[in-house]
Design a protein that fits this description.
Helix content: 55-70%
Number of strands: 4
Largest sheet: 4 strands, antiparallel
Distance between the termini: 104 Å
Strand order of the largest sheet: 1-2-3-4
Strand content: 5-15%
Shape: elongated
Oligomer: single chain
Length: about 260
């Protein structure tokens, strides 16, 4: 009995030592793994810095080309209105009244801060128009150290009877010619809480769509190339459907002849 107890105790001690050994090896492995992760993190930070430096360099190279592009765009009637209305997301944000205002839009500019980590601004340039006093409306996004974004914008001074806070002119509000729930794109320049369609796409999302999608190549949307492709696909489907109907008709005719 005593020998058996000693054997059991001895076996338990060996098992405990083995467990401790495994735990110790696991801790060492995890510590080494953490060292490699820390090293990778430093490399990734350096890479991000280099990418930002490169982006800043090429922003300066792009600037004169964008300026030349803008000069050409100014000579094309309703260029930005057409591009906006052809964009699947931005077109949803323009009311009928907004489209009238956009007919006076002659230029759009997206400009990064000199330090691209600090933010960017989007500026709409208008001809003198009957809607508001300004010829330039700017919205600026400043990235703060704590990870938040400070948003500031031009306060629009609407001309008498032309306020479009809810997507309609003041005259139309009085007559109640259209519902007042439709929100104007120009409320994007307000600091007040948005309602209606704007809730679905917030301030920064709208800015990102303009900056990352529309601004780099607005000609794609002006030419409505995406829509043309969709129409082309639909036409193909219609051809297939029509061919299918023709085949069905031919089969029916053959069947009728066989019965005769």
């Amino acid at each position: 009995m005593g020998a058996e107890k000693k054997q059991k105790v001895g076996g338990a001690d060996e098992e405990n030592n083995g467990t401790e050994l495994i735990d110790g090896e696991l801790v060492i492995s995890i510590e080494k793994l953490q060292e490699f992760q820390d090293e990778l993190e430093k490399i990734n930070e350096e890479a991000s810095e280099k990418v930002l430096e490169l982006e800043q360099k090429y922003n300066e190279i792009r600037k004169p080309v964008y300026d030349k592009r803008n000069d050409i765009i100014k000579s094309i009637p309703d260029f930005w209105l057409t591009a906006f209305m052809s964009h699947p997301a931005l077109s949803e944000l323009l009311t009928d009244e907004d489209q009238k205002v956009f007919k006076h839009l002659i230029n759009l500019e997206v400009e990064d801060c000199k330090d691209v980590k600090c933010g960017y601004s989007i500026t709409f340039h208008f001809n003198p128009n009957p809607y508001f006093e300004e010829t330039k409306l700017t919205k600026t996004f400043t990235f703060l150290e704590e990870g938040t974004t400070k948003i500031s914008s031009t306060s629009i001074k609407w001309k008498q009877g032309k306020g479009i806070a809810n997507g309609v002119s003041a005259e139309e509000k009085k007559g109640n010619k259209r519902p007042q729930t439709e929100e104007s794109f120009f409320s994007w320049f307000n600091e007040s809480q948005h309602t209606g369609d704007m809730e679905e796409i917030d301030d920064e999302q709208i800015a990102e769509i303009i900056k990352e999608d529309l601004w780099p190549n607005p000609l794609t949307y002006f030419n409505n190339e995406d829509a043309d492709e969709e129409e082309f696909v639909m036409d193909d489907d219609e051809d297939k459907d029509s061919d299918g109907f023709e085949d069905d008709d031919e089969q029916d005719d053959d069947g009728d002849e066989g019965e005769d």
